[in-house]
What we know:
The chain contains 15 helices and two strands. By secondary structure, it is an all-alpha fold. It has a domain of 205 residues. A two-stranded antiparallel ribbon has the order 1-2. The protein starts with a helix and ends in a 10-residue tail after the last helix.
Amino acid sequence: xxxxxxxxxxxxxxxxxxxxxxxxxxxxxxxxxxxxxxxxxxxxxxxxxxxxxxxxxxxxxxxxxxxxxxxxxxxxxxxxxxxxxxxxxxxxxxxxxxxxxxxxxxxxxxxxxxxxxxxxxxxxxxxxxxxxxxxxxxxxxxxxxxxxxxxxxxxxxxxxxxxxxxxxxxxxxxxxxxxxxxxxxxxxxxxxxxxxxxxxxxxxxxxxxxxxxxxxxxxxxxxxxxxxxxxxxxxxxxxxxxxxxxxxxxxxxxxxxxxxxxxxxxxxxxxxxxxxxxxxxxxxxxxxxxxxxxxxxxxxxxxxxxxxxxxxx
Length: 313
């Protein structure tokens, strides 16, 4: 192992220790900021895995956000299931939803695949907003028997953020990851070389559903309230696109940098309401003009600098 890589892991370890102790030394705002950063980074890593590596243009990740969140809320409120177990079950239910969706959308390619995922999310939005069992569109308050502390929720978010990063890193440096990058470069050639395209894409789609649904469960435990017009909104996909595009699509570090920038900007622009989306769009376009491959993608292209290389050397 060369010295650069050795020091890289030491620095990452120091960052992890610092973030792990935020509830001890950080203010309420720092705790809140880091919590949101972990959750958005987790979901953005999954969108990046789908689009940046698997070639699956998903415009319906909000389907898993809402489904995972509502599963957690229903199990916690109506059946008294332990809140963190409900979060995990929400992730598993999201996988079942993804399996059902795959029966239809995996017959499509490109933009049609994206439209298919978006249509499923819209169907779920209509279903939940007209379903008496979940109080129609008024939403549900999450009421666990023993409400978790803010520190506990923070550590759950930390586990999701770091766990997702490790998961993506391991996948991309495995044989599946090599196949994904070959598919991204040339799908027809990679298939001729023996890459099982359908299995690889389905695997990534299910992993993305599992982690997105679980992450959403943690998010709604923190927010306490879930409502269909927010949980299944296309805004989720817009946010994930913004994070991944400005950070650097097809890089592991990109969603991390993008999530940090998004959470920072969203806090500054919170008072501007819907105008904030327009401002974020202008920022995204500006960054794309200056750095077409995103911040980390352009940095890697020009300098070769990478913190977490996706390819084995």
